[in-house]
Amino acid sequence: MKNMSYGLGSASVLGRSRQSSSLPAVTDPPKGSLPNFVFLISDDQSYPDAGCYGNKSLHTPNIDRLAREGMRFDRVFAPAPSCSPSRSAILTGESPHETGTSRFHSPMPADQKTILEYLKSRGYYTGAFKKVHQGLEFWNRWDFQGHRQPIHTFFDARPKNRPFYLHIGYHDPHRPYLPGERFPIHNTRSEVAVPGFLPDTPGVRKDLAHYCDAIERLDMRIGICLELLDRHGLAENTLLIFTSDQGMSFPGAKGTLYDPGLHVPFVARWPGKIKPGRISSELISLVDLAPTWLEAAGIRPPKAMDGSSFLGLLTGGKYHPREEIFAERNYHTHLDLIRCVRTARYKLIHNFLPQEPYRPLSDIARSPSWRSIEHLHNEGKLSPALTRKFFAKPRAVVEFYDLEKDPWEMENHAPDPTYGDTVRKLQAELSQWMIRTHDFLPPPIEPVSLDLLTE
Q1: Domain 328-454 has what CATH class?
Q2: 353-375, pLDDT tens digit by residue?
Q3: Alpha helix (H) ranges present in 44-106?
Q4: Tens digits of per-residue pLDDT, 385-406?
Q5: Which end of the chain is more exposed for a tag (fewer CB within 10 A), N or C?
Q6: What are the residue boundaries of the structural domains of the chain, listed by start?
């Protein structure tokens, strides 16, 4: 544990970080020409919901192709279970509360630097399509504003003598799942696998089948992008990354800090740099994407970034693995202030509003899955574990899970003295992170106590 200064004077409700007015130094350029970057991000898709992860409910040949030709990651986590905050962290390399973007629909502050400014200083041409979710003004920062245009228009318009960063924010598999809207429609209720944090009911199965249909439509659209890269001869010099902004829009997932809300699929392909077929179980946060892109472009990531580059992990070079990831929940259709720290084995969640019961986000509250849960609860037929998870009032202030024994986070071991030392250690780690990143919430352990722990 690092010995740090824990003064709280710089913290604020906005949590804005202090950034240098100048751009970071350019390092020695990578061998050969600067790489292109293509970033494909789905909306509300949990790990392991793609065929390459062994999910037999799904046919995703294009995502599977990327995993086969590149690298599949098994432990990648969103910094927030909410669209805008998670996407802001991806673009800034900083925690949402530190940049004042912790609320759903928070616009990117005008003075907040993102990877766009850094990459442009290196000559990159930037373009975005579909969902970026950082406010209307943020669209002005992109060289090419795709909005609802076909994807091929970017490849036609881009300057052929410049590297590029292309950002495509797909809508699938976001709700609503409307009758006849999704295609192909062939996932029957009997085909889908019901994860352990949901009850196995016809309503849940129907909901999951529609979710799977949406992922398969997403995969078809990813195939269009891959075809364009091949057609234009760009695949060989392009680092392509596919992931999701947060987990699936189901009870106990999106809007929560449980793994189904944070754990996302992630594959990366970079011919000649990433060895095909590799699989990584290292802990990665999506906040690590920004410094990774910058380092790959020959730019030294600024100290203001909380994320750490994992370029060495991709290319087989020097890499310092993470010991934990952090995440936060603030406002998304309702206020619920939560922070968590997760290691490879353990998860600690701190609820700052325990007096408020679990409330699903508005789109989840209208879903067949939530109606099934409410019906079972009203009939007294919901399992004790799910009853505690969804209807406990008050909730526990501290939740602690041994993910090796309890991957669905059903049994809270925070009161168990067997885990006492680990709980205190993770509380200290979470507190250090909150103070270091200027969180507006009080840390679970006060700074004076933390100093004593690190002496």
Answers
A1: alpha beta
A2: 999 999 999 999 999 999 999 99
A3: 61-69, 83-92
A4: 999 999 999 999 999 999 999 9
A5: C
A6: 36-322, 328-454
